[in-house]
Design a protein that fits this description.
Elements (H helix, E strand, L loop, with lengths): L16 E3 L2 E4 L1 H13 L2 H8 L3 H15 L4 E4 L7 E4 L1 H27 L3 H11 L7 E13 L2 E7 L5 E7 H7 L6 E6 L5 E3 L11 E13 L2 E7 L5 E7 H7 L6 E6 L5 E3 L3
Helix pairs in contact: 1-2, 1-4, 2-3
Length: 271
């Protein structure tokens, strides 16, 4: 699988053995047991595993206690003068771990195959983690960047086709790495948006005017929230005084237009 940047997207996992609240071990400890089996010496096994002699024996001692019976034992006598070896229980544990590990890898391979189109969903998943105080969070594609002295006018086109114009400094455009065709999001606080219809639009900002249908109206303590549903599926929330709502005759089901300035739009990108 590959993401939008061309880097490989991989599925991975770790395997650990537990008894109660204690960990019997994972890849590192099982590898140590394998080195003991092949080297016949705790000193050589510790060196092969990249740990100190004391750390190796501490790990072995912990595993012996957690397993309830020895996994490693000292052997004496013989031509080599004795050494360290796995018990039958230790050998079975290593074999069982590797069998489970193989099954885990097969499972992860199936998951990776099933998630062949995961990259298509990753931008959506990443946006779900976005938390801001702005009531309106709209994702889209940058379709135009116009340089106007020290400022830039950036056009963000929403999935439904509506376009939002934002005004930001040229420095911000460069810092954010904004380019035509790139993905970005617009943040607009609800009090920065006006909703009106007909003659009431006179005098309101003209940089951004998005028409739709009033989906819901909620009023409380002299303030009213108006939800405007846009044709493409996006929704805008605006807050205004109750008397303004009444004077403009705004109610659910009627057509209206959201108006807001370009400087009211904050553009961001996912880091």
């Amino acid at each position: 699988m590959h993401n939008g940047t061309g880097d490989a997207l991989q599925v991975s996992g770790s395997l650990w053995l537990h008894r109660g609240n204690s960990s019997l071990g994972g890849q590192a400890r099982i590898a140590l047991l394998e080195h003991i089996a092949s080297q016949g010496s705790i000193t050589a096994a510790a060196k092969a595993a990249g740990m100190s002699y004391k750390a190796a024996w501490d790990a072995v001692d912990a595993m012996n206690q957690l397993a309830g019976e020895p996994l490693v034992e000292r052997s004496t006598g013989g031509r080599g003068g004795g050494g360290t070896r796995l018990t039958a229980r230790g050998a079975k544990l290593v074999a069982a771990f590797r069998a489970v590990e193989a099954a885990q890898q097969q499972f992860l391979a199936r998951v990776a195959n099933d998630l062949e189109h995961f990259d298509e969903q990753w931008p959506v998943i990443s946006r779900l983690g976005l938390q801001t105080s702005a009531r309106n969070q709209l994702h889209g594609t940058i379709t135009a960047i116009r340089h106007c002295g020290v400022n830039d006018e950036v056009t963000l086109t929403l999935p439904g086709g509506e376009a939002i114009t934002a005004s930001l400094t040229h420095h911000s455009t460069q810092t954010l790495g904004l380019t035509i065709g790139g993905q970005a999001f617009a943040l607009i606080k609800a009090p920065w948006i006006d909703v009106a219809r007909g003659a009431d639009l006179a005098g309101l900002p003209t940089a951004n005017r998005l028409s739709g249908t009033v989906d819901a109206v909620t009023d409380d303590a002299g303030q009213a929230e108006v939800i405007l549903a846009l044709p493409g599926g996006s929704r805008l929330a605006a807050v205004m005084p109750q008397e303004t709502l009444t004077a403009r005759g705004l109610m659910a089901g009627i057509g209206a237009t959201a108006a807001f300035s370009a400087v009211s739009v904050i553009i961001g990108v996912m880091a």
